[in-house]
Design brief:
Keywords: Membrane, Transmembrane, Transmembrane helix. Pfam families: DUF423. There is one protein chain. The protein is elongated. It has 4 helices and no strands. The mean pLDDT is about 95. By secondary structure, it is mostly helical. The two termini are about 20 Å apart. It has one domain.
Length: about 120
Amino acid sequence: MHETTRIRLFGVFAGLFGMCGIGLAAAASHLDDQRLLGSAALMCLVHAPALVGLIAAGNRLRFSTLSGALLILGVLLFAGDLVKRHFTGTGLFPMSAPSGGVIMMAGWLLTAVGALFPQPSRS
């Protein structure tokens, strides 16, 4: 993926996750059962700055593009399932939230591996 495209894509999702996180947290604060929306808000708010960090790291962090893509996909599945479950009583599809959680963990693990084995210097 071209660097400019990666920056724009991660920036768009960081902004959307931040906005959704604030909105979900506000909605959850008005409910008796905050569990689902509160968890969805937390996932959005945690991963928005993580994506900004991956933008800042750029190509210095090996696997940053794949790490960010996994984090985005994981948040969409996990938070999306919780929000849909809250409002409709059914999730996106069976095991979507756990799948999203595992995908997010893979993204974080790949971020750690990328930090341990940085990109080779270009001379």
